[in-house]
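call fold target=ATP-dependent Zn protease
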Amino acid sequence: MTDPQNSNASELSAAAQHASSADAILRRLATRAMGLTGADIERIVREARLKARRGKRAVRYEDIEDGIRGHRPPVPIDLRWRYAFYEAGHAVVHHALDLGPVRGLNIDTGEGAYNLLGFHASGTNTYTWYENMLTVLMAGRAAEKLVLKRVSSGSAGADESDLARATRVAFDMERTLGFGAEHPLLYRPHRDPGVVLDRDPELSARVHGRLEAALDRAAAILRRRRPVFHALAKALFDAQAMDEKTVLEVLTTGLPPELAVP
């Protein structure tokens, strides 16, 4: 004879597992879609529904994911590992410095890797906060150097690159934020830091010194947290896109998502 209580419990457990699985899928899709516009999402869903209708079936996860990826070829394995270590480096250092939540990581955007970092309001705009910002910005490069023994141009080469942003922060610390080693009370803004740095070797040395210190500090944090760093890089390599909850599980347990205790 079937026990009604056991049957109900099994049904509830199955329903809970289904809900948890559906939630995980939605969170992964949301992470995959980081950087897309509302119009992009609307188009992707419309195309997924059309594909499912033609196949006389329900919409599948793969339909949405394929639409988000834009049917791009897979990222080459070596580049995928580089992206994974690079973004894991940012996330581990950001978490170690307690700057805020890591909203998501994605190494399959079609335009390289992507991270979405949140920041606490407290403690901002202090000397320590800017030093921490520099450390996080240099963490991807530190991760490459630590694991791969060589760095790529992925951290530089554009005005919005990590190296460009870090240089701007270090430059502002010296010239406009009141933290300079020389004449800290002078406010000396400039639209093109590169021009000033080319003309002032001493200032260039101070700015570069700040970047070197941040790079070394990021590397030291990654060495101390090497197991977590490697676990997150492996998880990101496998999943390619990780939401805030999944990233936090790895950062706090040091275990891949499938082994972390909920």
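return ok
The radius of gyration is 22 Å. The longest strand covers residues 102-106.
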